[in-house]
């Protein structure tokens, strides 16, 4: 099987049951999920074995994201979705488990800390963008709404995982403070 097909050279791509423009809302939605999956792979690569639990959970999430992209690539009546409500429930359990390892949140938190936590924050904002793309898609045509819910919970989990990484590195959350000014020299 060749990597290139040349079938997309004119700006169209194949879906399951249709062909669409590469800037179609459906293609944008699953393309952003693919981007998120790649950034999660990068975050995993930055984590060491101290974070084996996060690595394992993030790897499962990568498989789920592949399924989510497949769900969104389906057009037509005979849809068989792979992302289901129980997967959202599983994310909520992970959020609760990891959140129990962090101090209570008493202020808005700036993204950052150690580089691995910053990588997870970057994944979080891409998950939010993917969710927005799926919201648009669901408004325009039928799609698996569980993917939207999954992405919403996933961004919360990525936020919580970033906090866990900082806690393990003994790095405190960076509180947001309004009206910050640059120091004059």
3D structure, described in words:
This protein has 5 helices and 4 strands. It is 58% helix and 6% strand. Helix 1 runs antiparallel to helix 4 (115-140). The protein has 185 residues and is mainly alpha-helical. It has a two-stranded antiparallel ribbon. It has a single domain, classed as Cobalamin adenosyltransferase-like (Hypothetical Protein Ta1238, Chain: A, Up-down Bundle), CATH 1.20.1200. Belongs to the Cob(I)alamin adenosyltransferase family. Homotrimer. This is Corrinoid adenosyltransferase. Its EC number is 2.5.1.17. GO terms for molecular function: ATP binding; corrinoid adenosyltransferase activity.
Shape: globular
The CATH class label is Mainly Alpha
The fourth-level CATH homologous superfamily is: Cobalamin adenosyltransferase-like
> Can you name the CATH architecture?
Up-down Bundle
Query: What name does the CATH topology carry?
Result: Hypothetical Protein Ta1238, Chain: A
Overall mean pLDDT stands at: 92
Strand content: 5-15%
Number of helices: 5
User: What distance separates the N and C termini?
Assistant: 62 Å
Family: Belongs to the Cob(I)alamin adenosyltransferase family.
GO biological process, one term: cobalamin biosynthetic process
Pfam families: Cob_adeno_trans (PF01923)
GO molecular function: ATP binding; corrinoid adenosyltransferase activity
């Amino acid at each position: 099987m060749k990597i290139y097909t040349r079938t997309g050279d004119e700006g169209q791509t194949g879906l399951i049951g249709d062909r669409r423009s590469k800037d179609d809302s459906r293609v944008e939605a699953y393309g952003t999920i693919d981007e998120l999956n790649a950034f999660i792979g990068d975050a995993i690569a930055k984590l060491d074995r101290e974070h084996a639990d996060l690595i394992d959970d993030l790897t499962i999430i990568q498989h789920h994201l592949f399924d989510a992209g497949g769900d969104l690539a389906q057009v037509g009546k005979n849809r068989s979705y792979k992302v289901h409500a129980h997967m959202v429930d599983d994310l909520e359990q992970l959020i609760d488990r990891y959140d129990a390892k962090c101090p209570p949140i008493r202020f808005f938190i700036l993204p950052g800390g150690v580089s691995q936590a910053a990588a997870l924050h970057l994944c979080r904002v891409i998950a939010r963008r993917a969710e927005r793309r799926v919201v648009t898609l669901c408004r325009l045509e039928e799609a698996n709404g569980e993917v939207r819910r999954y992405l919403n919970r996933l961004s919360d989990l990525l936020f919580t995982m970033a906090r866990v990484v900082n806690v393990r590195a003994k790095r405190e959350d960076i509180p947001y403070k309004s009206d910050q000014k640059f120091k004059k020299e």
